[in-house]
Amino acid sequence: MVSLKTPVCDFGTPVIDFALPGVDGKVWTLDQCKGEKGLLVMFICNHCPYVKAILDRLVRDTRELRDLGVNSVAIMSNDPAEYAEDSFENMKAVAERENFPFPYLIDETQDVARAYGAVCTPDFFGYNADLELQYRGRLDASRKEAASADARRDLFEAMAQVAHTGKGPEEQVPSMGCSIKWKNDAA
After folding, report:
1. CB-based contact 181:78 (threshold 8 Å)
2. Which of 92, 101, 94 is nearest to 40 (CA)?
3. pLDDT number for residue 65
4. What pLDDT is attached to residue 5?
5. What is the pairing mode between strands 123-128 and 3-5?
6. Which pLDDT belongs to residue 187?
7. b/e string for 59-70 if b means 16 or more Cβ within 10 A?
8. Using CB atoms within 10 A of its CB, is residue 39 exposed (0-12), middle (13-18) or buried (19+)?
9. CA 38, 43, 48: angle at the middle one, nearest 5?
10. What's the pLDDT score for residue 7?
11. Which of 8, 62, 111, 123 could form a disulfide with 118 if both were Cys (CB 3.0 to 4.6 A apart)?
12. Rounded CA gap, 49 and 61, in Å?
């Protein structure tokens, strides 16, 4: 397992379109996912300890962001042939067990992750109402273990600011997580 940090936010970068199958049996597009005030695109997976440590907070924060007009979508781009825990069937089970308030999509070709420049799980891309990048930071201070219950909610606060002002915070702490598991033939 390789631990990586995300690059600094490149403010204003336009969102990248996608059409990916979800665990609910639907094909989801960018237009179906975006919210009135913005969109949070999250690259996650099932096996990563960094993701497991924040799942309950991620569900909480995305529910609250939805109430502010910011919708969320999660994309799993790992190679499930190498990590069985990341299989589509296991994605369905995790989404159901955790009661995800957002679509959970599979990027089988890994083209969407490459287009976004995703590097790790979790990797967060927060866009404003004009679908311009405003946040590329962490959820909170959690690492492989959850941070304290009173930890600052970096992602939630940043995306709430985006919902209200259209702009993300100038100071952002990069997300940290496991590297995306690229298919050998696509590397």
Report:
1. yes
2. 101
3. 98
4. 80
5. unpaired
6. 44
7. bebbeebbebeb
8. buried
9. 145
10. 84
11. 123
12. 19
Give pLDDT tens digits for 146-170: 999 899 999 999 999 999 999 999 9
Polymer length in residues for the chain: 187
Model-level pTM? 0.95
Question: Distance between CA atoms of 126 and 41, rounded to whole angstroms?
Answer: 6
Domain ranges of the chain: 3-186
CA 107 to chain CA centroid, nearest Å: 13
Residues of the chain with pLDDT under 70: 1-3, 185-187
Three-state secondary structure along the chain? Answer: CCEEECCCCCCCCECCCCEEEECCCCEEEHHHHCCCCEEEEEECCCCCHHHHHHHHHHHHHHHHHHHCCEEEEEEECCCCCCCHHHCHHHHHHHHHHHCCCCCEEECCCCHHHHHHCCCEECEEEEEECCCEEEECCCCCCCCCCCCCCCCCCHHHHHHHHHHHHCCCCCCCCCCEEEECCCCHHHC
Look up the CATH superfamily of 3-186: Glutaredoxin (3.40.30.10)
Residue 164, strand partner residues: none
